């Protein structure tokens, strides 16, 4: 009697970002003054740790976003617990997108570049049709090279964010007066983090989105060139 192996459930990109990035940042920013920086750090760590463990059990795969979320929380909370601020927070703000960029760049030299995971989603695109056309035309290698190139461009967008983050953070994260009480210092630091979050959305997110749209255009142009399929033919009807 033959048994069919059940496919693991698909990864939910939105939940990934919310549990691994958004909620931990909100906890560190908003709850530190109510429950203390140590317990805020513990609670913030619980989300990416818990989501990563759940994802590993359900999908039998290591979740890179959970690892990055844990690292981001440890850096932010660790710096706050050690009483470090100013320059070190600017380094932290640059380090996170830089690490993501290195992860993306590294994936370009694997069998499945990160751009495929990001854009070629079977729930949105007819991936089977694309693979069939590429095989018919004998363009699998050229297509993989195009995916690699698009992934490298994506990693450069994170390098851009890292540089912008550092410049912006150096303006916002100034040294906090050491004569202030611990609670007062924590309040000032939370205000700086909130200010950084607000300005980075306007100054960094918008150019990054434009960069991302450009990469998507480059990606789809290559898909049409190698497979002969247009965007309309590839997209699944809702």
The stretches of 5 or more residues where confidence is low (pLDDT under 50) are none
Based on CA atoms alone, the radius of gyration comes out at 21 Å
Question: What's the helix-strand series?
Answer: HHHHHHHHHH
Rounded mean pLDDT is: 80
Can you count the beta strands?
Answer: 0
Total count of helical runs of at least 4 residues:
10
State the separation between the terminal residues, measured CA to CA: 38 Å
Strand content: under 5%
Oligomeric composition of the shown chains = single chain
Tell me the structural class: mainly alpha
Shape summary: elongated
Largest sheet: none
What is the helical fraction, as a range of percent?
Answer: over 70%
Topology record:
Elements: H1 13-30, H2 32-35, H3 37-59, H4 64-82, H5 87-107, H6 114-119, H7 127-137, H8 140-172, H9 182-227, H10 231-234
How would you describe what is shown here?
The protein is mainly α and 238 residues long. It is 78% helix and 0% strand. The protein contains ten helices and no strands. It has helices at 13-30, 32-35, 37-59, 64-82, 87-107, 114-119, 127-137, 140-172, 182-227, 231-234. Helix 1 (13-30) packs parallel to helix 4, helix 3 runs antiparallel to helix 4 and helix 4 runs antiparallel to helix 5 (87-107). The two termini are 38 Å apart.
